[in-house]
From TrEMBL:
The name this protein goes by in its record: allantoinase
Gene: allB
Family that this chain belongs to: Belongs to the metallo-dependent hydrolases superfamily. Allantoinase family. Belongs to the metallo-dependent hydrolases superfamily. DHOase family. Class I DHOase subfamily.
SUPFAM superfamilies from the UniProt entry: Composite domain of metallo-dependent hydrolases, Metallo-dependent hydrolases
UniProt keyword annotations, A-Z: Hydrolase, Metal-binding, Zinc
EC number: 3.5.2.5
GO BP: any one term: allantoin catabolic process
Biased composition (Low complexity): 454-484
């Protein structure tokens, strides 16, 4: 590092200078330049010195690469649906530069050896940086310390049935696993649905002859989520575990989280793009394509999630990118249909459209999709912001560009999406990973150069970030040449 007192002319040239864009952090948007050296942000400020490459970002918005903490890229074992190459190309094209991949593969990632095999398998195919979850399973508590040492990003706990049909651990196994996760310093992310309840209610509907898409929603009413959220928060608090609730979907679930927080429970909450953009009228329009666990909900729940975002009660937005084959997505009997659909590539254009509509600010988007995800999984020394020292994961966005979700341009193996034909405002022009171009105008470019990410060592359990208390991640505009 050069002397902090030197001017820009005393510094070696930057590898890349991005000039004149509006750089967005979780709490502000500032028109400034970014100087990139060795894949990292080396300087932030107006009028920076020269770069070997220069990029004019006038009129564009510069975001930190999105961190999608909930994707299923289906390797190993389900590559007919998606694989790490296709899924991470989709991520790059959509402005997502870090993904956290879920462990409900074939086989599921339950052991240290299985983790190492998956890591070796997927690393050469990764077009963006990635973390890998291990499973908090029925019988693998003895493996959890090893999973942490191997670099697992966290542990996924399926309390309710979903793709892969992995057996859900009982409360005893959950508690043992939570204690092991605490000792290992791993975040536990939970799919919070009460398995016995959803199976019972769904069986009743099935016995009554129902096969229509809406029966899936009726078999998983809000109580399925509320009970599971309450139980897991209770157990995790006693076990001292850092808990993250994936895809919270109901007004009642969010109310319960508020109550639990008021009692001192610390938990981060994620909602999905799909739960924000679709309501139960989607069953009539899209059929079983929008079958999702937890289900797409009535409009009142959707409105409550948006209010939760505005109030700062929701910490993170993710996709639950969950590909299936086109044939699987065409299944007409709801009980045979698969849960989930793709989303990693359409997340940012769809959320930018919500920014355009005034439902979200750009700093909100960065807080929910970059800053808090990186902070929660202890990646925030390098990810989730564009302060000096951060990885130069940049997304250049034209905020006013009209467009349309076009499945033919998507990179997933089976680009079947309910958003086909949806109009958008805001386009991803380019994505950079550690200073190198990985996508341009919706097309992934270049060889895979993604790296495996592990969380930084745990210190104290971080509190969930809120707009009021979060630490600024982006240095304010500084004079030319400042390296501080
Ligand atoms: Zn999922």
């Amino acid at each position: 590092m050069d002397s902090h007192t030197g001017s820009a002319t005393a510094s070696p040239p930057f590898d890349l200078v991005v000039r004149g864009g509006t750089v967005v952090s979780h709490d502000r948007a500032v028109r400034t330049d970014l100087g990139i050296r060795d894949g990292r942000v080396a300087a932030v400020g107006a009028g920076l010195g020269g770069g070997l490459r220069e990029l004019d970002a006038t009129g564009l918005v510069v975001l930190p690469g999105l961190v999608d903490v909930h994707v299923h890229l289906r390797e190993p074992g389900m590559t007919r649906k998606e694989d790490f190459a296709s899924g991470t190309r989709a991520a790059a094209a959509g402005g997502v530069t870090t993904v956290v991949d879920m462990p409900n593969t074939l086989p599921p990632v339950e052991t240290t050896a299985g983790f190492a095999e998956k890591l070796a398998l997927v690393t050469p195919k990764a077009h963006v940086d990635f973390g890998l979850y291990g499973m908090l399973g029925k019988t693998n508590a003895d493996e959890i310390a090893g999973l942490a040492t191997a670099g697992a990003m966290g542990l996924k706990l399926f309390m309710g049935q979903t793709t892969g049909d992995n057996p859900c651990p009982d409360d005893g196994a959950i508690f043992t696993g939570l204690r092991a996760a605490t000792a290992a310093g791993l975040v536990v992310g939970v799919h919070a649905e009460n398995d016995a309840l959803l199976r019972r209610l769904s069986a009743e509907l099935r016995a009554a002859g129902r096969t229509d898409p809406r029966a899936h929603l009726e078999g998983r009413p809000a109580v399925v989520e509320v009970e599971a959220v309450t139980r897991i928060s209770t157990l995790a608090s006693v076990a001292g575990t850092q808990l993250h609730i994936h895809h919270l979907s109901t007004a009642a679930g969010l109310d319960r989280v508020r109550l639990l927080r008021s009692l001192g429970h610390r938990v981060t909450v994620e909602v999905l793009v799909a739960h924000l953009l679709l309501d139960d009228t989607a069953y009539d329009r899209y059929g079983n394509l929008v079958k999702l666990n937890p289900p797409i909900r009535p409009a009142d729940d959707v409105a409550a999630l948006w209010r939760g975002i505005a109030a700062g009660d929701v910490d993170i937005i993710a996709t639950d990118h969950a590909p299936h084959t086109a044939e699987e997505q065409a299944e007409t009997d709801v009980w045979h249909a698969h849960g989930g659909f793709i989303g990693v590539e359409t997340m940012l254009p769809l959320l930018l459209t919500e920014v355009h509509r005034g439902r979200l600010s750009l700093p909100d988007l960065v807080r929910l999709c970059c800053h808090t995800p990186a902070r929660t999984w202890r990646l925030d020394d390098r990810k989730g912001h564009l302060g000096v020292g951060a990885d130069a994961d940049l997304v250049l966005v034209d905020p006013a560009a009209p467009g349309e979700i076009d499945p033919h341009r998507l990179h997933s193996k089976h680009p079947v999406t309910p958003y086909a034909g949806w109009p958008t405002v805001g386009a991803v022009r380019a994505t950079y990973l550690r200073g190198e171009l990985v996508a341009k105008d919706g097309q992934a470019v270049g060889a895979p150069r993604g790296r495996h990410l592990a969380p930084a060592p745990a210190t104290a359990t971080p509190a969930p970030s809120t707009p009021a208390t979060a630490t600024p991640a982006l240095a304010p505009a500084t004079p030319a040449g400042s390296m501080a």
